């Protein structure tokens, strides 16, 4: 079995407690060695020529390929690229994020790590959110419920030159897929924001996240009719008659409605509803990451999995996260809050 396929071992591949964390990562060199081990499980591979020879080490951070002389660092091309924040702080942030069962806010991260800037904590969280989606992850299978929820986000904008305030409400459509376990319970989930409720948006999502041949349960919306052809068993799709139906949606699709309820509680609780429409996708990624690992008894393993993805996820900057739109002179950035989520 290769190193990449080996199951991580507590106390060997990741720390089990905060005390052990502090023993493992006493300085930057310890952090660099750990990240290098995660990034190149089978040994260094040159990003330019793919040479696998042991590199020259120009200093504790820079690696030089023996074949093409290409220079890189352990953190280049990762979410840690060009950071001025010490790696020990980054790893402590990863530990804090994964040890908080209900999630972490930027304000909480700033307070716990003693960061001087809220912006730094906020950007760190968003970089980690980018690493919460594993490429090539397994599709859902078995019995899968699919439905949409509607998230209303109110943007309030106040001019710096007046006391007037304008507001606009944006409705985000979120499609939810939930594995249903037997005899009861829910498995993994997938979430995605779509532009509008249509077959053209929903069907590609289902095909991407659900194994062919699975049983798809939906309500009676016409957009789901083609699923019967795609999955080969139209009769497996549950349809309810909307007018006068005796089966409420939350009874027909309990998994979807449970997940929608938890999502709303999480957004309003951990993040105080302060989620901007153009950043919603990455909050959904974090919710999926946490929900699908809700039964894990090892916070250390979650820490390991997050960093495992962090070293193969492309870097982003604060400006990448903040979608800057042209504003009139004197106009402030809008304040956003979630005001409603309906199943």
TrEMBL record:
Pfam families: DDE_Tnp_IS1595, Zn_ribbon_IS1595. Residues 139-292 form the ISXO2-like transposase domain. It comes from the Bacteria. InterPro entries: Tnp_ISXO2-like, Transposase_Zn_ribbon. NCBIfam families: transpos_IS1595 (NF033547). This is IS1595 family transposase ISPho1. It comes from Paraburkholderia caffeinitolerans. The lineage of its organism: Bacteria, Pseudomonadati, Pseudomonadota, Betaproteobacteria, Burkholderiales.
């Amino acid at each position: 079995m290769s190193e990449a396929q080996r199951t991580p071992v507590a106390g060997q591949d990741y720390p089990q407690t905060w005390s052990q964390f502090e023993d493992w990562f006493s300085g930057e060199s310890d952090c660099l060695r750990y990240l290098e081990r995660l990034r190149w499980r089978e040994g260094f591979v040159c990003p330019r020529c793919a040479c696998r020879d042991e590199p020259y080490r120009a200093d504790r951070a820079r690696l030089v390929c023996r074949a093409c002389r290409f220079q890189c660092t352990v953190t280049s091309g990762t979410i840690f690229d060009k950071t001025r924040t010490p790696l020990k702080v980054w790893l402590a942030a990863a530990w804090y994020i994964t040890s908080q069962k209900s999630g972490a806010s930027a304000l909480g991260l700033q307070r716990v790590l003693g960061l001087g800037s809220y912006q730094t904590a906020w950007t760190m969280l968003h970089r980690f959110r980018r690493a919460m989606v594993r490429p090539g992850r397994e599709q859902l299978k078995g019995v899968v419920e699919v439905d949409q929820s509607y998230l209303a986000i109110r943007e309030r904008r106040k001019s710096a030159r007046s006391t007037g305030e304008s507001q606009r409400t944006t409705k985000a459509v979120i499609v939810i897929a939930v594995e249903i376990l037997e005899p009861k319970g829910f498995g993994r989930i997938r979430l995605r924001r779509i532009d509008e409720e249509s077959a053209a948006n929903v069907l590609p999502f289902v095909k991407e996240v659900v194994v062919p041949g699975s049983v798809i349960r939906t309500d009676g919306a016409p957009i789901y009719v083609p699923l019967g052809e795609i999955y080969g068993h139209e009769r497996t799709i549950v349809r309810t008659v909307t007018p006068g139906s005796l089966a409420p949606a939350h009874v027909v699709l309990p998994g979807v409605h449970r997940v929608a309820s938890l999502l709303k509680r999480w957004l309003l609780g951990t993040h105080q509803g302060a989620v901007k429409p153009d950043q919603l996708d990455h909050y959904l990624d974090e919710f999926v990451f946490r929900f699908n690992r809700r039964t894990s008894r090892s916070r250390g393993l979650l820490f390991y999995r997050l960093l495992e993805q962090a070293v193969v996820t492309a870097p982003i900057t604060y400006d990448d996260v903040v979608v800057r739109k042209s504003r009139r002179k004197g106009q402030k950035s809008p304040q956003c809050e979630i005001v409603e989520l309906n199943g």
